[in-house]
Structure formats: structure tokens, C-alpha cells
Amino acid sequence: MDEAASTPEVPHMWRPRTVRMVAYGLGLLIVATFAVLAVILPIDWRPLDRVMLVGFGLVIAAGLHLLGRPRLIAEEDRVLVVNGIRTHVLSWQEILDIQMPEGEPWPCVDLSDGTSLPVMGIQSTDGEPARQAVADFRAMLQSRGEGEEPGLS
Q1: Where are the beta strands (DSSP E) in 22-139?
Q2: Among 7-11, 68-72, 87-91, the least confident range
Q3: Measuring CA to CA, which residue among 145, 84, 82, 153 is closest to residue 110?
């Protein structure tokens, strides 16, 4: 099989399946539960108390959104690593390798400045799809990343 045929086309996005389903499902359940509680509470609860109860459920759902938000987006000229709060925009040449050692929750990309960056958009809880995502990204990295050193083959 041709190496180019096995790599995904750009743009390509990887998102964790299991964590996203749990985060958004739980967020929806919490908001719905707090809304039902706000409706069935005793009459002596004021309207502001009821609104605050639903608002608290929305705050919890917003926190859970941070768990479901991560993704890895490979574009033609750059890579976006979206983690819970921060988004990192990297060029292909900045990324040296991606590694997900056994037992780690997500992979890390090794950067050319000597640091590493966690990629929460691929999660080991997804099992084989996560390993395939790392392999696909590594193949894309080899075809788009920094060229080999002269004299080293």
C-alpha cells in the first residue's frame, strides 16, 4: 500500500469520542436536572433562587465543555492543538514527533524548541482509534514536517 494513500487528507480533525460523549451527556443531564428541580421546588423559593439553580447547572456544564473541547486539527500549512482552555497554533516544521507511551492518557508532541505539548484531542480511552490517530498524524508529520538532515539516511 502506498504511504501517501494511507495518510488522511488535510484538513483533518481528531477528537476524543468517549470523553466528549461523557462530558456533553453529563452536562445535558445536569442542566436538565437543575431545570426540573427549579420547577418542582416548594412555592416559598423565590424566582431568583430558581434562576440561580439553573445558572449553577449551566456553570457546571460549561466546565464539562472544557473536557469535551479538545481536538487536533491538521491543516496544509499548520497544526492546531486545542486543549481545554488554550489553543496552540504550530507550523509543521515546529513539530519533531508525536508519542503516546503505553498508559499515558494522551500523546505529546515534541517541539523544536525542546519542549513538549500535550495533545488532549487524542485520548487513550478510545483504544485502537487513538493509536491509529497517532500513527496517522505521525505519517502526516513525516510527509509535511522538517526535512531530513543532509548526509543522514
Answers
A1: 71-74, 79-82, 87-90, 95-99, 108-111, 116-118
A2: 7-11
A3: 145
